[in-house]
């Protein structure tokens, strides 16, 4: 059955006022994850190192570390057992050498701009729990085994059959991103003019530090989306965007493809070439990977 999902792009005018203008002070502000470089080489045997508390907060933000709000070590600079285990879990998720230490490869990975949705949600590692092996027995494919690294958001939320989609977004790159997902699914997206009736809302949002927003200035968290059926997708308005691959800028469509995956119910993937991989590089474009398509079809039983 074809279902219908409505899309409304709002606050688009903020692109001109916010995305491509920034003050000199903002340009000189250090990158949000830049502090990690100074901690490179940290390991449990070091015991204490200034700035380790920031690393703990980074890993807590993306779900790898939890002190349950009461542990006295949550805000100190001690490289404890909890931190070592968190780094090991991170290294497993990103196919890095599992050392438990903040080595060069791990630090470099952590400093990349990324999606703000945590990799581990309420203790569930969304990137590792769906290593699903399937076999196809169709013509010419006997014995073929495909391993999927896609994941679903906690609780496997998804849009009910009463809703559907085909994107005709307010701006072409976002529209193309919705159309790309539509081509891989039975969904159709339509733009609506009535805000209250929209299931999906796309906006540019500027994080004001300390206001509880997920954004942190240029180069950190670049976008964020909510699981079904909340339907919100936010770009970070502090980032520099472009249509297509432009050095130093993020491609609108690539970011939209990733976040729409979350809107539909997918979590993060361990496959670096998948659109649902948490990190998005500037100056590049990216499309759907076989892992992304396997994931969305498995979620909706297509």
UniProtKB/TrEMBL annotation:
Residues involved in Ca(2+) 3 binding: 216-217, 236, 239
Domain Peptidase metallopeptidase: 155-302
Cofactor(s), by name: Ca(2+); Zn(2+)
Signal sequence interval, chain numbering: 1-25
UniProt: Ca(2+) 2 binding residues: 199
Positions of Zn(2+) 1 binding: 209, 211, 224, 234
Matches recorded under PROSITE patterns: CYSTEINE_SWITCH
Catalytic residues identified in the record: 259
UniProt xrefs under Pfam families: Peptidase_M10, PG_binding_1
GO biological process, one term: proteolysis
Cofactor note: Can bind about 5 Ca(2+) ions per subunit. Binds 2 Zn(2+) ions per subunit.
Record keywords, A-Z: Calcium, Glycoprotein, GPI-anchor, Hydrolase, Lipoprotein, Membrane, Metal-binding, Metalloprotease, Protease, Signal, Zinc, Zymogen
GO cellular component, as recorded: extracellular matrix; plasma membrane; side of membrane
SUPFAM superfamilies (alphabetical): Metalloproteases ('zincins'), catalytic domain (SSF55486), PGBD-like (SSF47090)
UniProt similarity note: Belongs to the peptidase M10A family. Matrix metalloproteinases (MMPs) subfamily.
Protein name: Peptidase metallopeptidase domain-containing protein
């Amino acid at each position: 059955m074809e279902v219908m999902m409505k899309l409304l792009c709002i606050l688009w005018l903020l692109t001109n006022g916010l995305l491509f203008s920034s003050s000199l002070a903002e340009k000189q502000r250090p990158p949000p994850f830049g502090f990690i470089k100074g901690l490179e080489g940290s390991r449990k045997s070091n015991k204490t190192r200034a700035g380790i508390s920031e690393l703990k907060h980074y890993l807590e933000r993306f779900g790898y570390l939890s002190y349950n709000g009461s542990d006295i070590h949550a805000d100190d600079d001690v490289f404890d057992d909890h931190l070592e285990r968190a780094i090991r879990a991170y290294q497993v998720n990103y196919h890095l050498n599992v050392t438990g230490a903040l080595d060069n490869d791990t630090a470099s990975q952590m400093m990349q701009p990324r999606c703000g949705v945590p990799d581990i949600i309420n203790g569930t590692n969304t990137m590792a729990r769906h290593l699903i092996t399937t076999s196809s027995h169709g013509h010419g494919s006997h014995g073929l085994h495909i391993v999927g690294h896609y994941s679903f958001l906690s609780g496997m939320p998804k849009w009910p059959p009463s809703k559907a989609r085909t994107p005709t977004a307010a701006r072409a790159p976002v529209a193309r991103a919705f159309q790309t997902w539509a081509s891989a699914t039975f969904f159709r997206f339509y733009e609506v003019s009535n805000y209250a009736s929209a299931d999906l809302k796309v906006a540019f949002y500027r994080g004001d530090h300390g206001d509880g927003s997920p954004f942190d200035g240029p180069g950190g968290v670049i976008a964020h989306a909510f699981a079904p059926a909340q339907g919100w997708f936010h770009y970070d308005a502090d980032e520099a965007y472009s249509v297509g691959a432009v050095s130093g800028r993020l491609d609108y469509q690539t970011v939209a493809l990733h976040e729409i995956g979350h809107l539909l119910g997918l979590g993060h993937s361990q496959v670096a070439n998948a659109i649902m991989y948490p990190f998005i590089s500037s100056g590049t474009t990216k499309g759907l990977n076989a892992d992304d398509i396997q994931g969305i079809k498995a979620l909706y039983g297509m």
